[in-house]
From TrEMBL:
Its cofactor is FMN; Mg(2+). This is Coenzyme A biosynthesis bifunctional protein CoaBC. Residues 187-328, 360-437 form the DNA/pantothenate metabolism flavoprotein C-terminal domain. The keyword Ligase applies. The lineage of its organism: Bacteria, Bacillati, Actinomycetota, Actinomycetes, Streptosporangiales. Residues 325-337, 346-357 have a biased composition (Low complexity). Pathway: Cofactor biosynthesis; coenzyme A biosynthesis; CoA from (R)-pantothenate: step 3/5; Cofactor biosynthesis; coenzyme A biosynthesis; CoA from (R)-pantothenate: step 2/5. Coiled coil: none annotated. CTP binds at D280, K290, P307, D308, I309, L310, F366, K380, K384. Catalyzes two steps in the biosynthesis of coenzyme A. In the first step cysteine is conjugated to 4'-phosphopantothenate to form 4-phosphopantothenoylcysteine, in the latter compound is decarboxylated to form 4'-phosphopantotheine. Catalyzes two sequential steps in the biosynthesis of coenzyme A. In the first step cysteine is conjugated to 4'-phosphopantothenate to form 4-phosphopantothenoylcysteine. In the second step the latter compound is decarboxylated to form 4'-phosphopantotheine. Residues 325-357 are annotated as: Disordered. The keyword Metal-binding applies. Keywords: Decarboxylase, Flavoprotein, FMN, Ligase, Lyase, Magnesium, Metal-binding, Multifunctional enzyme. Residues 9-178 form the Flavoprotein domain.
Amino acid sequence: MTPTRSGQNIVLGVSGGIAAYKACELLRLFTESGHEVRVVPTREALKFVGAPTWAALSGNPVAAEVWDDVHEVPHVRIGKRADLVVVAPATADLLAKAAHGLAGDLLTNTLLTATCPVVFAPAMHTEMWQHPATRANVATLRSRGAVVIDPAVGRLTGADTGPGRLPDPAEIFQVCLRVLRGRPRDLAGQKIVVSAGGTREAIDPVRYIGNRSSGLQGYALARTAVARGAEVTLVAANVALPDPAGVTVVRVESATELREAVLDASEGADVVVMAAAVADFRPETRHEAKIKKTDGEPDPIYLTKNPDILAELGARRQAAFGSASGFAESGGSADTGAAGGPVVESGSASGRGSRSGASPKVIVGFAAETHDVLANGQAKLARKGCDLLVVNQVGEGRAFGTPDNAATVLVAGGDPVEVPLGPKEDVADAVWDLVAARLS
């Protein structure tokens, strides 16, 4: 298995689940990106997709047994030469064999001899995924450095629905690309909440006040965190993107809904990253019927302030930990209202009061600015009580809706970090580098 000039050696393991056919799409994504792929199916997988299909799509021979081409010692050679091994789908049986070091076929032998990163994309029925034995096997594999992507929630075999569905192959591919970049698994065991997208504040059943955020940066943060080992909850506001593999997605629309979801998810979380563009204001009154056009001037729309979620997170942490919190030690402060006191709501539009769960260790905010970027960012960092503030200049085709981004990461108690223009994954990795340093 010789890599192309631009690609790397990928071993695609396929175990015997009904989702084996989806691995054909994952294989295509790898080969079209210039990677050399060797497919190693189990004998059960070959009952779903035959060896000729794998050979034709990969351009490499296909074998399931250690006895095939034994003179080439494939059970050792394939794993040792790989830059990445990804198993998709990974059944409960395959996960159990991998966790216990069994080597009954070519795939399990390859997993034992591989010294490169290994990614498992499980797919099975909900009861099997949630069984204590499977959970223990997954924990064992993760403790050894493997990336085990949580399955998606959706339609399974037959009429069943629940967690256990193979994530979209394109999203598995994105996780694999990030693992291939060689980033450390320094977020392993960390529970992370990321918000993404832009909120919409209803005027009537048809119209709303919104913004241009696409959610691309927040999704890049979520995908990159998964590749670095984190358990990620993504609160997505009006985002038209596929769910990232291995991420729990909570969909919301308005700022009050986003507040509710973020505060729920942040209980017990280690890190919260507020990448969503949250509307500062909402209409004071929501019309129950569409506002009709009439002669003369339209009636004015009166606005009221939305809750400041980032400031609330910072103030809650200050109240819980005082000077022991990271941002307080480095000189930050909670956001203040008109009277100078911290903005900590005792309730919200939804009636939800204060939470009792542990506050996050690290809070990251985002600031989209059109002018006086650094000055506005520094002022916001001081007000919000967060540890890091990612500041980008927006407008004229910058940041919103584009695959690239440039940013300055302001650090409470430290020097700013410049991230040059590049893929939004680069900004995500820069943020996680700083977060991991604070966690350690």
